UniProtKB/TrEMBL annotation:
It comes from Acinetobacter bereziniae LMG 1003 = CIP 70.12. It comes from the Bacteria. Residues 2-158 form the Tle cognate immunity protein 4 C-terminal domain. Pfam families: Tli4_C (PF18426). This is Tle cognate immunity protein 4 C-terminal domain-containing protein. InterPro entries: Tli4_C (IPR041290).
Length: 165
């Protein structure tokens, strides 16, 4: 195991329990509005299950902002990806004051194990609209965005080293 950075590989047997963080941003030529990010890091004591955190954050949204978008969950619950039991929330945001289709935003989170660096935290985020293009409406269908999200999630693999092999 280790860390890849450009043309270099830094070997790390992960026995010293050092905090680490790696993040990748994915952009897709066929879906120019969609951005995904994948975060992999050491588990932290303050990490909260994603569904619990989203519910808490939604309760704190000011009423003025709730009037701008109609928020509806497409999927919310447990989701296992290649043996990793995580949580997923996919949400559709529909602008209330326009006739646009809105956009999707989502997250899948695997908390990992606090005291085991070989079982690290994984976060995959999806945003179906780029701020630089259109902040409220995606021209890509919800079906296509969900298919892309599922394709990326279903291709997450854990190295044999981290599986204890």
């Amino acid at each position: 195991a280790g860390l890849c950075w450009k043309d270099y590989f830094i070997a790390d047997d992960m026995t010293e329990n050092r905090f680490f963080l790696s993040e990748a941003f994915l952009f897709f030529p066929s879906y120019p509005e969609v951005m995904m990010n994948i975060e992999n890091r050491a588990r932290d004591e303050s990490d909260t299950p994603i569904i619990q955190m989203i519910q808490k954050n939604r309760e704190q949204i000011p009423e003025e902002l709730k009037r701008v978008f109609k928020v509806s969950d497409i999927r919310s619950g447990s989701r296992e990806i290649n043996g990793l039991k995580g949580e997923e929330v996919l949400t559709h945001y529909q602008p209330r004051l326009s006739f646009g289709r809105g956009f999707e935003s989502g997250v899948w989170q695997y908390l990992g194990t606090l005291d085991n660096p070989k079982d690290s935290y994984i976060y995959v985020g999806l945003k179906g609209v780029r701020d630089s293009i259109d902040k409220e409406n995606s021209s890509i269908s919800q079906k296509q965005i969900l298919q892309l999200n599922d394709f990326v999630l279903n291709n997450i693999k854990i190295s044999p080293f981290n599986q204890g092999k």
